[in-house]
Amino acid sequence: MQIEVLKSKLHCVTVTEANLNYMGSITIDEDLLDAANMIAGEKVQIVNNNNGERFETYIIKGERGSGCICLNGAAARKVQVGDTVIIISYALMDFEEAKIFKPNVVFPSEGNKLG
Q1: Does the pTM exceed 0.70?
Q2: What's the chain's Rg over C-alpha atoms?
Q3: Overall average pLDDT of the 74-95 stretch
Q4: Residue 110 carries which DSSP code?
Q5: Cα gap 111→69, rounded to integer Å
């Protein structure tokens, strides 16, 4: 049996931009992607702590070291710059593997910086 489990999470990052005039997705600083073991094109769930919105989109790689968290296209309507969001990705895996799997959970500091 396969189940869907938490693979990666960027916990409480700050939205730095919202770009309505873009085709869609979320742009994330490449350093944050590496730390969370996420990749460009990966499907993610966004949870907005400020307004309760929950939605899905896919990742675009942002400039390394920029701290960028930019919601693009229609998703830009679900956030405001300065909102705190959680970015979550999931993976399908065998039930037994899932019991021992350890997700990558990252807690960036102010400015969406690591460490």
Answers
A1: yes
A2: 14
A3: 97
A4: T
A5: 10
Buried b (16+ CB within 10 A) or exposed e, 12-36: bbebbebeeebeebbbbbbbbbebb
**Sheet containing 17-19, strands listed edge to edge, beginning at the edge strand earlier in sequence:** 17-19, 69-72, 25-29, 54-62, 43-48, 84-94, 2-14, 104-106
Report, as residue numbers or ranges, the catalytic residues: 25, 58
Neighbours of 3 (CB within 10 A): 13
Whole-number Å distance between alpha carbons of 93 and 86: 22
Start-to-end CA span in the chain (Å):
37
Closest CA to 17 of 115, 105, 114, 112: 112
Cα separation, 27 vs 33, whole angstroms: 10
Residue 28 pLDDT: 98
CA–CA distance, 55 with 30 (Å, rounded to integer): 21
